[in-house]
Amino acid sequence: xxxxxxxxxxxxxxxxxxxxxxxxxxxxxxxxxxxxxxxxxxxxxxxxxxxxxxxxxxxxxxxxxxxxxxxxxxxxxxxxxxxxxxxxxxxxxxxxxxxxxxxxxxxxxxxxxxxxxxxxxxxxxxxxxxxxxxxxxxxxxxxxxxxxxxxxxxxxxxxxxxxxxxxxxxxxxxxxxxxxxxxxxxxxxxxxxxxxxxxxxxxxxxxxxxxxxxxxxxxxxxxxxxxxxxxxxxxxxxxxxxxxxxxxxxxx
Length: 252
Prior knowledge:
Blueprint (H helix, E strand, L loop, with lengths): L1 E2 L5 H9 L5 E3 L10 H4 L2 E3 L9 E2 L23 E6 L3 H12 L8 E6 L5 H9 L6 E4 L4 H9 L3 E2 L26 H7 L3 E5 H7 L7 E4 L4 H33 L1
Parallel strand pairs: 1-2, 2-3, 3-4, 5-6, 5-8, 6-7, 8-9, 9-10
Helix pairs in contact: 3-4, 3-8
């Protein structure tokens, strides 16, 4: 099984001649539409394909777990919001959005998952006086990265039709589109999430944890949706804290 196979003559020849060769692809490849035999030996990691295409979500594969899972017995630890963002503008947008939510009232901290800390975003966080609440995280090790993601309370895919159209349905077979990497993480770790309404529609039948949606690709719209989620989870934590306190008192 080859993963993310390149579509070239060698790839096509191998699938045609080797009965044991199969391929996993991330997104739609138009060249395969006219090659039924090759297409039938290919499976896509995306749910946006017709029934005659092999497709699946990689949620039944083994999950990397943390040795110290999120401690429900300590709901007073606050909330961790995580968002992927590599580009300078995206990081600035995430920082701006975070500054607009009631982070102090609900003890919220932000982790930006990135390959590079962009100085404009770091400067903005300092200017807004929230740099002590924001962590820029770059982790090359996949297992360590997955463990860190498992500790998030709220995950923001930051994927919308305007900025990342490759992840949304069109009239092309299979939507012609790819799976955003945030979705398997949200599903595997049952993370609460805040996402664009069109993204939620695609994965609605797979999402099992709380979801808040926004309809506009604006900082204000995202901040409003994130605020709703933060308030909801904070209320849930208050209930858990009261329950734990009552149990401790009864044991004494």
